[in-house]
Amino acid sequence: MQAVVLVGGLGTRLHPLTADTPKQMLPIVDRPMIEHVVAHLGGHGVTRVVLSLGFRPEAFIDAYPDGTCAGIPIHYAVEPEPLDTAGAVRFAAVDAGIVETFLVLNGDVLTVTGERRQEKTDRHLSEFGYGRFERRFTLPDSVVADQVSASFEHGMLELTLPVTEAAKPRRIEIGGEASKAA
Description:
By secondary structure, the protein is an alpha/beta fold. The protein is built from four helices and eleven strands. The strands form four sheets. It has a five-stranded mixed β-sheet with strand order 5-6-4-1-7. Strands 2-3 form a two-stranded antiparallel sheet. A two-stranded antiparallel ribbon has the order 8-9. 20% of the residues are buried.
């Protein structure tokens, strides 16, 4: 199975982090985000990944000059001009010579699943002095992209979502005493 991964966007919502670096090349824990994405695909049977490149394609080509990423062969499909989503998918598939069914996904979606994966993430973060990574938050049903802010400091990407009623800490009664819920 092959996959086309869309990584050509400008990443404007993450400026200034992405002013000179594609967002998929920003480090997440110990390596660029794209390596996590490609490794995840490889773990699920993908044997070749086609990167649909637009903004700063040389960042990917320079980082993976041997044509492999996370041990998976990759093909670079560099758009001659911005082609939007459907155009980018078609261009990448034709450029790579794909003629059979293939997966298409955005390159800025990071999937972390399972307790073993969480333990590995915790171990990497502790090696960098960040302690345990806690996932204690409630996402609203929908988030307007302009309401999300991002910062990058000490090798960590931090996204801040707007506070909604569902995400606000609330007081609950336990044994007659009020306590703040995490």
